[in-house]
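Customer escalation, tier 2.

The customer says the design service returned an amino acid string that "doesn't look like it belongs to this structure." They asked us to rerun it and document both sides in this ticket. The original structure tokens are below, unchanged.
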């Protein structure tokens, strides 16, 4: 869910509302969550998944990466580290994808099945001044409040409600409703597509609920769970709705900007609920632009810090999201200016997500062009902004960037050591005239997780997940065991899961159709916002832990065991690792060193903890009539050397992007600059 976050809220003067908006945040990422009852296991506070620069020096270089030897039994000779890393990347690319998570379907297959109770097919009919109850999630405290709100304005597609504790201004409410109906509603639908209509409540109206209970600094949000039946998601309002801070003036364009932003999220959730935040947030910021409210206020924050993991959305409790909003907007605007609304609509509808969804969309408009090439062209455009150069790909035709991205000066001669995030951008400028030899030495491998498999080199990993369910399933025959025989499933696990928004469950079934959620030592039934479906892992395990599940009730028959990782939209953490599974009563034990061993993985994938890195590099020479651009690919297999000539009246800027998928670990690199005669 997307949230506008404000600074300290106070009275409004002539200063625009946007002046105190600190950033657009995602509610699941902004949580400061309690850890449930005293009976629940204790975890530490969540930590961000993006590694800080101080961690970079500990990245294992290629020369020191050696696989652990499985113990205690000897194993055949293992492939080389290079082969293992390459095979891991291939497995990740070819893995069966996680499925879209539909909570109604999931609960219908619990044992006993929990049928959904849908809202009445008769749409509600509201008159002005009607009062009703709403559930509101208060940010920071993660408490759900019940408020009373009065209907102040209505149009064919919008109800405007105001908390009854706030003095009403019907004229301002009517102005907001009119702007939404006549401008935002048709514009967003034209560019991005339609919203759910008539929606979960069988009503074409959307709800805008203004209340002071959003929490300190929160301007507004769209919550996907409000579109679910209350029977399956506690605290659902069972409407397509936006929650807005009542201290925002309803007659102000910056309040309308927020509605345009959140409306795109609602539209996107209807077409591609699993889309990653960098695409979704970029398009919501684009919605502000196409509605006439200007560029994202966070463009400069990105240009001052372009080395961010563009494809990842951070925990805003640990890291500012401002540059992420700025970067995602600039990319969405770049795509919009070059391919127009048709590209945007197809991207919204594309079921594949993130880089894969971008590639699928690009295939339709420019077959044969890779998404990584597009991203590098965009990175060059951020620096050059020359739409008249080449085929126009190195600039914005209708937008003037407020500044150039921050650059680092290369010594001449000398060496420069840096680090770049996956899908981050580093700009390095050489300003000394003459001919120079440039040598790049870059990290060869990236880790997927901050821990190693418990034994050996392989473990099953859930992936990051995004409004999805990843599963790992296997059937076991317990028919040779007498009923009542004690049977225990044991396994080792490590997890870093967004606390109380995402969960890992262990499910058991006697028929593979209807499932029971098992209780585990390291799980929790804590459920402050209604997302826990019973008993699940969430938060951080603080290292590998041993856990077990009682299978005794299934002795004498069959049992299906399933690990299920369920995530909500927006923020996600590293995920869930499973290793060393055993059922002593069957003599079964597997650490998956040589095969999947009969486990059916969908979203989960058996991998090692290294993948090879790939980088894209552009050499931009300025000085003379027109800039020139050369592009190349770098890997860490060996240093790569080339020559550059710096004109007397110009300079050379190298644009580096790490295009390694699946990892969140920054890469080290070393650049050596030596003069040539």
């Amino acid at each position: 869910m997307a949230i506008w976050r404000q600074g300290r809220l106070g009275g409004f003067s002539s200063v625009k509302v946007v002046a105190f908006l600190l950033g657009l945040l995602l509610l699941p990422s902004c949580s400061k969550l309690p850890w449930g009852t005293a009976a629940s296991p204790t975890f530490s506070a969540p930590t961000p998944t993006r590694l800080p620069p101080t961690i970079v020096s500990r990245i294992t270089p290629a020369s020191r990466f050696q696989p652990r030897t499985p113990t205690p039994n000897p194993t055949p000779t293992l492939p080389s580290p290079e082969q293992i890393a390459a095979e891991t990347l291939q497995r990740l690319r070819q893995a069966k994808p996680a499925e879209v998570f539909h909570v109604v379907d999931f609960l219908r297959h619990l044992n006993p099945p929990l049928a959904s109770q849908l809202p009445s097919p008769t749409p509600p009919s509201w008159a002005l001044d009607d009062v009703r109850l709403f559930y509101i999630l208060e940010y920071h405290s993660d408490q759900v409040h019940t408020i009373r709100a009065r209907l102040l304005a209505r149009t064919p597609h919008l109800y405007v409600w105001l908390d009854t504790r706030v003095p009403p201004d019907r004229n301002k409410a009517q102005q907001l409703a009119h702007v939404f109906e006549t401008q935002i509603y048709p514009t967003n639908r034209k560019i991005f597509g339609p919203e759910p209509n008539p929606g979960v409540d069988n009503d074409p109206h959307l709800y805008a609920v203004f209340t002071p209970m959003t929490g300190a600094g929160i301007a507004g949000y769209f919550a996907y769970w409000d579109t679910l039946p209350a029977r399956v998601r506690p605290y659902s309002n069972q409407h397509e709705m936006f929650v807005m801070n009542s201290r925002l003036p309803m007659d102000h364009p910056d309040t309308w900007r927020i509605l345009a932003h959140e409306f795109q999220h609602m539209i996107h959730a209807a077409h591609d609920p699993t889309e990653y935040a960098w695409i979704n947030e970029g398009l919501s910021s684009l919605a502000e632009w196409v509605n006439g409210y200007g560029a994202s206020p966070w463009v400069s924050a990105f240009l001052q810090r372009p080395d961010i993991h563009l494809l990842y959305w951070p925990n805003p409790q640990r890291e500012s999201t401002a540059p992420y909003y700025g970067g995602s907007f600039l990319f969405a605007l770049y795509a919009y200016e070059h391919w127009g609304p048709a590209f945007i609509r197809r991207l919204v509808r594309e079921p594949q997500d993130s880089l894969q969804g971008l590639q699928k969309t690009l295939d339709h408009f420019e077959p044969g062009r890779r998404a990584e090439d597009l991203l590098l062209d965009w990175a060059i455009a951020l620096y050059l902004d020359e739409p008249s150069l080449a085929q126009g790909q190195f600039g914005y035709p209708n937008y003037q960037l407020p500044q150039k991205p921050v650059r680092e000066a290369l010594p001449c001669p000398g060496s420069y050591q840096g680090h770049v995030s996956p899908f981050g951008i580093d700009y390095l400028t050489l300003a000394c005239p003459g001919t120079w030899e440039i040598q790049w030495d870059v990290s060869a491998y990236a880790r997927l997780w901050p821990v190693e498999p418990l034994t050996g080199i392989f473990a099953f990993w859930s992936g990051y997940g995004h409004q999805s369910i990843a599963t790992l399933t296997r059937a076991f025959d317990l028919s040779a065991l007498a009923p009542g025989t004690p049977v225990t499933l044991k396994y080792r696990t490590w997890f870093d899961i967004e606390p109380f928004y995402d969960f890992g469950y262990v499910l058991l079934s006697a028929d593979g159709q209807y499932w029971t959620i098992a209780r585990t030592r390291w799980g929790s039934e804590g459920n402050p916002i209604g997302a826990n479906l019973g008993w699940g892992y969430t938060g951080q395990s603080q290292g590998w832990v041993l856990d077990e599940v009682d299978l005794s009730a299934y002795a004498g028959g069959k049992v299906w065991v399933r690990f299920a990782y369920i995530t909500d939209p927006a923020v996600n953490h590293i995920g869930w690792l499973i290793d060393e599974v055993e059922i002593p009563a069957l003599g079964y034990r597997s650490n998956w060193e040589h095969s999947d061993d009969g486990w059916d993985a969908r979203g989960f994938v058996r991998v090692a903890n290294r993948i090879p890195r790939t980088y894209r590099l552009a050499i931009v020479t300025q000085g003379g009539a027109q800039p020139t651009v050369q592009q190349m690919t770098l890997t860490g297999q060996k240093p790569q050397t080339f020559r550059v000539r710096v004109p007397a009246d110009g300079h050379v800027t190298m644009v580096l992007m790490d295009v390694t998928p699946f990892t969140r670990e920054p890469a080290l690199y070393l650049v050596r600059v030596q003069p040539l005669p």
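Tier 2 assessment: The sequence is consistent with the input. The chain has ten helices and 32 strands. The two ends are 58 Å apart (CA to CA). Sent an explanation to the customer and offered a walkthrough call.
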